[in-house]
């Protein structure tokens, strides 16, 4: 049941707030995005292509968000993007959130078939299973797919004005500046309630989904980055959205980013 739910969520059968661009840009891209999930990604990259023609292109900032399942990372990221887009100059590319749409970007960047999307979970597949499937030629190895994902994250991070959700983005971009690394947490009951509403699940299904997702993300970070996802030293901000609403969390993130940008500019 949980595998079926994850597949349905990946394929977009459950509702998902846009929140990737400003409200105006969301409305402009909504019809295209429903037909093509990479429409927003392409708009973001095109804006950067045009921006590179400007003299003295600035070193643009980025945000990474690690999260417990159901902590509202996509919603918080979308709200932060809206706040940042409201004050960006017309010559600057839009702030864009990359979450599930990152998978499509990875496949397109590395000319991989759409059928490989199911082999790109935020989890570390068992070594024996992955090795057998690679030998049989079913798909590239899990390590190779993780490398492709890392390459795409680095490409987006170096472009800047991007909010990267999950997949060890904070480890991948640890040496880049200016950047704010965020970890979102919340009490389990809050997260279950959010997942149940967001994905139209029962309380039992939401609890099982949260447990499976959190375990998978923990394995992913440990295997590919030798990191501990819960370690607060890996983040600029650790925000408990059980004690603040999503709007407040977004404002804190934006303020921290402004501070990071100022510190970087003064060095």
CATH superfamily heading? P-loop containing nucleotide triphosphate hydrolases
- What would you call the shape? globular
The CATH class designation is: Alpha Beta
Which consecutive residue ranges, at least 5 long each, have pLDDT under 50?
1-38, 48-55, 131-138
Average the pLDDT over all residues and give the rounded result. 75
Q: Please give the largest β-sheet.
A: 5 strands, parallel
- Number of β-strand runs: 5
Strand content: 5-15%
Terminus-to-terminus distance? 53 Å
As a whole number of angstroms, the C-alpha radius of gyration is: 18 Å
Lateral strand order in the biggest sheet? 2-3-1-4-5
Number of domains: 1
- Quickly give the structural class: alpha/beta
Number of helices: 11
String of helices and strands: HHHEHEHHHEHEHHEH
Q: CATH topology, anyone?
A: Rossmann fold
